[in-house]
Amino acid sequence: MVSITDDLAALGIELKPVHGPRTASPLIGVVVRAEAAPELAVAATIASLLTSAAQDFTVHVVGASAASTPRVRSWVGADARFHWLPTAAPPAATTYTLVLPAGTRVGMYTLEAYVDAIRLTGASCVRALVDGQSASAELWDTAILARLQATGDPEAAVRTSGTERWVAGGSLGLHDYLRPAPRLHVRKGPAGRHDLTVVVRDAGDAGVRRDYEERIRDLESRLARSEKARRRMEAGVLPKRGAARVYAALRRGPAHVTGRAVTMLRRTRSS
Amino acid sequence: MTLTSVAVGFGSGPIAPLITELGLDYAATPWQRRSTEDGAAWHHETPRDTRWWGTYAVRAGSLAEARSLLPLLRSEGKAHRFILLIEGHAPHEEADAWTPRHLVSKAAVAGKTVSGFGFATVIDGGTWVTVHAAATAALREALESGPTEGLGGLRVGITDPGYRSWLAGDPVGSLMTPELLNPEDDDIYAVDVIVGQPSSSLPRVEGRITPTVWTPGPADLPPVDTAVISPRGFLPDADGGIAELVPAAVVGGGGLTERELASLRNAPYLVVDGARFQSLRYELGARLSQLAVAGVPMLARDLPADVGEMIGRDIVDLIGRFDPAEAPVQRESKSIDLRRAALERFAPRQRWSLILGELDQCVPPEPTVSVLLATRRPERVGAALAQVAQQSWEPLQVVLVLHGFTPADHPSVRRAVETYRGHLTVVTVPAGTVFGEALNAGTRAAEGVYLAKMDDDDWYGAHHIRDLVRAAQHSGAQLVGSQVEFVYLESLDITTRRPSAGERYTDHVAGGTMVLRLDDLRQLGGWRPVHRAVDRCLLQAVQAAAGRVYRSHGQNYLMHRHAATDSHGGHTWNPEDSIFLQSVAEQWDGFAPPPQITARPPAFTGRSDDLSSYFTIGRQQ
């Protein structure tokens, strides 16, 4: 008998695993590594999961004592998806296992993008570096993880077999909770997908052309800044952060500070 | 947002007449009229990378005035259209003498693309211009590559137009007419070597050098004109279909054209069935030599034995190594090996060096390269010198700049310096010396024709300098280098590869791979005396002097992205390393240098503890 999903596919309706009907086992088992992280960092990670478009997950917060996270525990205490464990949990009966260091935030479509990334690459494990975080995020095929854990070191195994992939966390929408969310200029699949309202515009209209040209200029400006940052990285020069950045800006004089403020205000109004 | 246009030097005069006279549409955009005397008019509220203009028109009363305006334009951002009007100025209308350089400038002004026809240049000297000089000038403007080195001073003549392929690389190569074959007794011959067979023996005059006459044998292939056919344009990731060489392409002995080569670039391989060329063996040999110089990956079979003799067994073997099932990085590496061998044999200067050697004539020497190696790290000196020692290029001089220490301070440094077998010059500079000045100190000690900057902590292929010197020779670029394509991320213990756009002219190359002529560097004023970004400053200087920058392949350079060091001296990851994971085309676990680099892994390998998997045994306690 033809399955209902096959019939739907014939109509052009394709559902990804993150969009499928719920089953007894959630799609993703999230492990939040709390360890010595501050309570706010744990809360920020949990908050980002709650605002994710994909909600088919269970969460194990590992290594956080009750004394260090009383408010967070109280906050999500009634949500059956959240569990608090003193030590590592064995892989849950989920399709994927996602490890997030506390303080790592997911974007609205990060879970979907992450699942897509592991499926499209055929990797057993996709690991993401997040600027500002000392540990990486990692997404595993749970069945493979469980098998490898039973027979040895999973990390060593995937490295040897060449089925581990590293990506920049920003490309999946991951970011440190103390830093702004990454701007995604090039939409990489679900990481940048939104509900679209399609508006047909006449490219011959002068106003439409001006609007697109302005967007192109904005993208080119961002690209130029990104290139500058990349070259600085290649040269081993770290960008200034925090107080050092403020000080560097102030050193350029009041005209520069005013100009930057005006530009930022214009961008805010136009966005 | 409406784009604003800018008019500089127009005062309150009208702008529209100039625009319409130029045949441009005069869009009714708001205009900013900017005075060159009012400094405040050049101050902007917005950052430079957000300054966009519609039309940017500059009017000057003279060439001197126009040049004086350049500093004002430095921070003006970008414009949709730029117009420069120099009143009363008609460049290259007249010249004291129509030297080739003057004609090149005139051709640049006059050359244009004619719709339906192609590129046309009209050089009207107003007075008589030498046809050959005018043609050379016109071609110079049509050619993307810069002027190349030629044959090292060798002058070649031919007795028959059928031999003109032997003149590739000689800018004043000549068809030997009767008057050239019989100069006046008190005059010299115009050439050093004559290809072909003059109808009569050359007259000899005591004290005058008589050219060597040489007739190519049936298996002698001419040089390849690398100004047109070169590795430039090679694509590491060719996603088209496999192409095939057909006999019709070589009938008549016509050489590979730039258009034909461009059409092959997107094909991952070119199939060559030697059995189809039984009656076109010489033509096939010539074509294979050109394809090999261009680095075109080939799947060849049944090559006639004499074709193998023509192009050389080593090249035949290199052609035979291609495998359609191989990974792109392997395909590129084999192409690099092929084009390297082919350039050593068929590039004009190298081809004539081989011929002169066979004729027991004096062979022009290869240019000396000075390697500039500056370091603040005594512990890196030994390894850095070892990298240079494995370079295949000769002759080589190493200028080792010790920044803040001397060999006497460190036994390991002294040992490395004493045991280095090669031409080594050690320069010491105080620790407080600005990096750019440290490089200048080393540059002053350099003696070579070329200067190659190398880093003390990255990895280089054995042919790094050779490939870049040849790239400089065939591209005519003032500055050559590679991009950072391969990176070893120490904290993750992985090697990544970024997408490459292939061999091309560009505006950026990695600082650790820069090669340029020493004279050019001195003309540019040397390295800027700054503490960092010296490479970016050099790139800017080269481009400001209208020089070309050429990027060769990236397989000779593996960048070492170090882990940071924590307070306990252990290696940890650098918090901003994620940028190195953006736009990654391929990645490999561990230390995996590209095929062109043979290197041992660094002393510390292994993933930082912080970045080990959460599920690594021993972690989950």
Automatic annotation (TrEMBL), chain A:
Ranges in coiled-coil conformation: 209-236
Coiled coil found in the keyword field: yes
Key words of the record: Coiled coil
Record-given protein name: Uncharacterized protein
Organism (species): Arthrobacter echini
TrEMBL record, chain B:
InterPro entries: Glyco_trans_2-like, Nucleotide-diphossugar_trans
Domain of life (superkingdom): Bacteria
CDD domains: Glyco_tranf_GTA_type (cd00761)
Molecular functions per Gene Ontology: transferase activity
Residue stretches making up the Glycosyltransferase 2-like domain: 377-498
Keyword Transferase annotated: yes
Key words of the record: Transferase
Pfam families, per the entry: Glycos_transf_2 (PF00535)
Listed name of the protein: Glycosyltransferase family 2 protein
Lineage: Bacteria, Bacillati, Actinomycetota, Actinomycetes, Micrococcales
